[in-house]
Write a structure and sequence with these properties.
87 residues, alpha+beta, three-stranded antiparallel sheet, 2 helices
């Protein structure tokens, strides 16, 4: 994902409000419509376009077993929220 940890935290707060905790190590645990989700990040190599470099993160969203539909819906909403140009 082309962002920093601060960007990711900001986006989560924009979607879920100030109740979103900060990262603990490489994870944030939160509940999405009552469904637990763990957001895990790892630093990825920066990408470059000419002289410009972009921060990259490997991000995973892990939902509770049996919550695939809720997880898929949340990921689609998160994706729309983070699209450049307003989705």
């Amino acid at each position: 994902m082309g962002c920093t940890r601060a960007d990711l935290e900001r986006w989560l707060r924009e979607i879920h409000g100030d109740a979103v905790p900060s990262f603990t190590g490489d994870t944030i645990d939160l509940a999405v419509v009552g469904v637990p989700v763990r957001v895990t990040v790892r630093d990825a190599p920066q990408r470059s376009l000419g002289i410009v470099s972009f921060h990259e993160l490997d991000v995973s969203f892990d939902f509770a077993p049996g919550e695939r539909d809720a997880g898929d819906a949340w990921v689609r909403a998160f994706d729309r929220h983070t699209q450049r140009g307003g989705g």
